[in-house]
Amino acid sequence: MPTEYQTEWDLSRFYSGLNDSRLGEDVSAIVPTIRAFAERFAGRIANADTETIIEYYHEDARIHDLLQKPGLYLLYRWSLDTQDLDVQKMSGALEVASVEAGKFTLSLEQEWKILGVERIREIAEDSRLAEHRNDLLQRADGLAHLLSESEERVLLAKSRALGSDLSLHEELTGSYLFDVTVDGETKTVTEEEVRTMRSDPDRTKRRESLRSIRHVYNSRQNQIALSRIYTAVVKDHVSDVELRGYSSVMEPRNISEQLDNTTVDTLLRQVRENAHLMRQYYDLKRQHLGLETFEVCDALAPVGSSGRKFSFGESVELHLSTMREFDTEFHDLSVMFLREGRVDVSPRPGKRGGAFACYTKNTPSFVLLNHTGEIRDVSTLSHEFGHAIHGELSQARSHTGFDSPLSLAETASIFSETLLADRLDQLLEARERLFLLDVRIQDMISTIFTQIQYVAFERRVHEAIVRGEELTYRDLNVMWREERLAFTGDSIVHDLPAEEESGWSMIPHIFRSPFYCYAYAFGNILVSSLVAKYREHWAAFVPAYKSILRSGGSERPKTLLAKHGIDIDSQEFYAGAFSEIARMLGEYKALLPK
Questions:
Q1: 493: DSSP letter
Q2: Half-sphere exposure at residue 119, Cβ-oriented, CA atoms within 13 angstroms
Q3: In whole angstroms, what is the distance from residue 39 CA to residue 564 CA?
Q4: For the segment 80-97, what is each residue's pLDDT rounded down to a tens digit?
Q5: Starting from the edge strand earliest in sequence, which strands make up the sheet with 363-368, in order?
Q6: Which pTM was predicted?
Q7: Domain tally for the chain?
Q8: Rounded CA gap, 333 and 349, in Å?
Q9: Domain carrying residue 111
Q10: SS3 181
Q11: Confidence of residue 119 (pLDDT cuts 50, 70, 90)
Q12: For 226, which of 295, 350, 505, 516 could close a Cys bridge (C-beta 3.0–4.6 Å)?
């Protein structure tokens, strides 16, 4: 790998360290800055004209740029070491300042309510506010759920306590270490490393990996703690739903995703009705593995052979060559991330598990990986770089039109992953191609069916809390098993009683962002449509695709995609994705040993 590529984050663009006086000054500036902003517009929003709204957004953008810096820095420092007490302390100070500052904007939100839905929608049509139009329409949609100023103050104060619950989940699970015994030798590993063992060709090692994970997560003290944290998160969400008058527990997420309730209901129904594809995959995989029974530990078992480990340098070059062939701008942006110290590569104790990309308006994209050399890590690299590229292309938008809803935020990541898989398929030998085909099907099964199973579990738990039920970790475990069976049927043999099935407690998204996971399913189905268009009309597709990414969150998904010939409410939108899975399963079946 070229020496100019850096493998650790360079955070010096933010601050020199936690003791940098500018960090403390920026945190201290939050409250007076927001107070001055609120005072500047007090009494002006309720009767605002277009000029006032333009001034409001201009000042709001300035403050956004000023105040996001300490938050991003502390997020990145915490991600590198979730056990750093100094980071936790400074993050607590930032949280206190943010909650206090939020009190000053509550009266402004009430003024927007006085201005009224119709007037806001009228102002949104002014061409001078084109960049903020979608934000204004979203604001109008949300006014129906805005409470009185005194009620909003109570909820804001309560949010500080909940914030500790959210961070506690990641702090707790980030401290977990796992003892695994392989070939008579016991060693202690991180969660990222023990999860990598779940895809080992050796069934004994897969079983040991699952045993080790369960030993930690299924301990009575951890189950009690994690269930308490989760039900606290759910109760807070449910109380918000009830107080604000939402029609369902999922409506807040649907509004934030800018998707109609009916669109999301269609997504959930279509995926559930096609869950037979998931069961078919597991049965075919059992046959490929030559197993009489298919156990939980076999779900991630490799089929075929990867034939090699991929160094980070090799993974980078595969991604870059794929991007270069697709579009030079995608390639050049990827190189920039690597040269500027915006990618942190290797797992280490305390580091947050998994991978993510973070990007905001007027701030460079950063990528966190936990690269261990598996072929999945190559795909993960392309996935997260796709996110980061999306962030860079969206920079042309205003701060209100920058962030796309999560329903579109997975587009670039999954599309990049798909391009990489196509390239790998051309380079690998027969056994390796079988391995890659299995990985691709497995990923589609996971990102469509498994993610919707998570959502089905979430909805069931949230609705139980709405009914006033108190749920123990055993209740959650049983619900998890029942929803799992609704999708997998008897294609998997479960080796634990339902009361001990704690898989829900290992899913960070359900703690951080209720119902977030359906965005993955929607994104994968959308990418199936985009890939079909790419293969049919490459020359016309690339600029259209980049136009979608550059649009950021400036338009609702349904409106934006309709401009490019995609109707997200149509039967064809879903049929294309399920047909592609069925086609791949047919290829998979044809490769079964005779």
A1: B
A2: 14
A3: 43
A4: 999 999 999 999 999 999
A5: 343-344, 363-368, 356-360
A6: 0.81
A7: 1
A8: 30
A9: 17-168
A10: strand
A11: very high
A12: 505
